[in-house]
Amino acid sequence: MKILVCISKAPDTTSKISFADNNSKFNEAGVQYIVNPYDEWYALVRALEIKETIGGNVTIITVGTAADEPIIRKALAIGADDAVRIDAEPKDALFVAKNIADYAKDKGFDLILTGKETIDYNGSQVPGMMAELLDLPYISSASKLDLSANTATLETDIPGGSEVLEVELPAVISCAKGMAEARIPNMRGIMASRTKPLTVVSSNDQNAFTSIKTYSLPLEKKGCKYISAENVQELVDLLHNEAKAI
Amino acid sequence: MAVLIYVDSVSGKVNKPGFEAINYGKKIADLKGDKAVVIVTGDCHNTAELGNYGASKVLHAKAVSSADSGVLTKVIAKAAEQENADIIVFSHNLVGRAVAPRVAARLNAGHVAGAIETPTNNGAFTVKKAVFSGKAFADVEISSEKKVISILPNSSPVVSMGGDAEIIDFAVDAALLNSKIKVKEVKTKDGEISLREAELVVSAGRGLKGPENWGMVEEMAKILGAATACSRPVADIGWRPHHEHVGQTGIAIAPDLYFAIGISGAIQHLAGVNRSKTIVVINKDADAPFFKAADYGIVGDAFEIVPKLNEALKKFKANAQ
Ligand SMILES: Cc1cc2nc3c(=O)[nH]c(=O)nc-3n(C[C@H](O)[C@H](O)[C@H](O)COP(=O)(O)OP(=O)(O)OC[C@H]3O[C@@H](n4cnc5c(N)ncnc54)[C@H](O)[C@@H]3O)c2cc1C
Ligand SMILES: Nc1ncnc2c1ncn2[C@@H]1O[C@H](COP(=O)(O)O)[C@@H](O)[C@H]1O
């Protein structure tokens, strides 16, 4: 089983979100980057579990600059076999998808796994775009993934419930909670990660069709109105008359 | 030119996220002086209602299911070509998330996912979307000729416009329907309100001590007609199912009312619920960070407050009948 896992960097979940250059850029000062949680906890770990049960190879790929190598090493330390970095600053989702699809098209991957979305730009775009560019079936936001021969069985949410799907491989699957449990790299993994192969390939240098012009922050809340624990009726009245929520 | 809006049909009907997408597409169409054309797939019994939300024409592709985004993409691309549509609108709901990016890739179009406001078009076409899990917004310019926009559910109230739409059967070649995906089983949770679309949500956290104490939370949800949700550790320990986990790494929601009971309000939790219109926090620790994001707060023991609150809500509901 040849598995490609797409990983993206993401600002640590506790990062303070602020902007620079007249609100045109994310302020990276003091921001720690991590592997996007969905990519690491679910896509990567499930890929490793599959490899451990039926054998195969797990390659990770990221579209990013040399500054992103620590997140690549982290994914290798967790257990991926080798890594590819497409050397470019990701311009937008279609740019990333075109780059990865171009790289993957003739490599014979059986499974391409991604996270459900990146926690910074929240697009859930890259996997669907790649699937279309590679003309592959795509299951979005799967919470279970099992393999038998050339078929994957998956579970995903649908409005008001969930469904079990069967898909012929190769396929693109974006991974959500439920699929696997996060793993912490051990010392051996960390040591081994330093010498695992990392190939840098150049970008196919596409134009991007979308660009962020300005950022803004939500308005501050007016402040909390406190209600005494002895007087829950007041809360009901406020929710009805003031908030008009019930 | 036209604006094409794709909506999916849930249990035989287009529902609120669909109406919202049609409203949204209609606003863009008005901006450009074009018409808004809707395409809906599968079994759908309320096509006649869609004109009321802004559609001037409804293409109904009955034979197409929404399970395979690849098939849907081909059908939507065909409709876009037929209608000469340069903007395609989706809801950023479960089906929209799977299919909109595929359509964007097929049409080589710029795509904004999670739009929260109608675009502005003064030379450049700019769309506002939520980023950093709702902690900020970004104005994104789309420069391609064709554009795909997915609107975040619950970002604007649904408006009736009182229009009528022409309804047309959209025939699709059988060859287009070939799919490598088979639906083996559909598990619906009858009577349960879907968290993603819920207007009212009652949520609880580790403060509730154990799964056996969720009865009062479920009762509140039942009285209000609300969906239930939980914090991540609660889903991780298995007190509640994973699909109830809200937050930065769970589901992001934007209901009219969010009740947080025994949840501390960690930044990762807030990221998934901070777009709620009204937030009520019940926590025994007056310093719990959640109070900073709350509109209404009660400091005290949930085990005393929630049962009393349920009684008061029950009375309120009975009088409101
Ligand atoms: C990368 C990352 C991603 C994460 N993603 C998410 C996410 O998506 N969603 C999420 O929820 N969390 C997420 N977390 C976890 C988050 O940081 C918090 O640990 C979590 O939200 C805390 O859950 P809690 O509030 O239920 O529990 P606690 O923090 O233990 O808080 C329990 C609260 O209950 C109160 N309490 C106790 N007893 C009572 C009582 N009798 N009556 C009333 N109140 C009482 C306490 O005062 C306390 O405030 C993430 C963490 C990381 C590192
Ligand atoms: N720059 C990138 N390099 C590699 N994979 C990426 C990159 N950006 C996004 N992805 C993958 O695509 C998924 C969805 O990302 P997004 O469409 O940005 O929400 C992520 O969870 C990653 O698996």
Task: Record keyword descriptors for this entry.
heterodimer; A: about 250 residues; alpha/beta; Rossmann fold; two-stranded antiparallel sheet; B: about 325 residues; 2 domains; seven-stranded parallel β-sheet; five-stranded parallel β-sheet; 16 strands; about 30% strand; elongated; binds flavin-adenine dinucleotide; binds adenosine monophosphate
Characterization of the model:
The complex is a heterodimer of chains A (about 250) and B (about 325). Chain A has about 250 residues and is of the alpha/beta class. Chain A has one domain: HUPs (Rossmann fold). Chain A has helices at about 35-55, 70-80, 95-105, 125-135, 185-195, 230-240; strands spanning about 1-5, 10, 20, 25, 35, 55-65, 80-85, 110-115, 140-150, 150-160, 160-170, 170-175, 200, 210-215, 225. Chain A has a nine-stranded mixed sheet, sandwiched between helices. A two-stranded antiparallel sheet of chain A has the order 2-5. The longest helix of chain A is centred in the N-terminal third of the chain and has 18 residues, at about 35-55. The model of chain A has no long low-confidence stretch (mean pLDDT about 95). With about 325 residues, chain B is α/β, with parallel strands linked by helices. Chain B has two domains: about 1-175, HUPs (Rossmann fold), CATH 3.40.50.620; about 200-320, Rossmann fold (3-Layer(aba) Sandwich). Chain B has seven helices and 16 strands. Chain B has helices spanning about 15-30, 70-85, 95-105, 215-225, 230-235, 265-275, 300-320, and strands spanning about 1-5, 35-40, 55-60, 85-90, 110-115, 120, 125-130, 135-140, 145-150, 165-170, 180-190, 200-205, 225-230, 255-260, 280-285, 295-300. Chain B has a seven-stranded parallel sheet, sandwiched between helices. Chains A and B meet through helix 1, helix 3, helix 4, strand 9 and strand 10 of A and helix 2, helix 3, strand 5, strand 7 and strand 8 of B. Strand 14 (about 210-215) of chain A pairs antiparallel with strand 8 of chain B, so a sheet runs across the interface. Bound molecules: flavin-adenine dinucleotide and adenosine monophosphate.
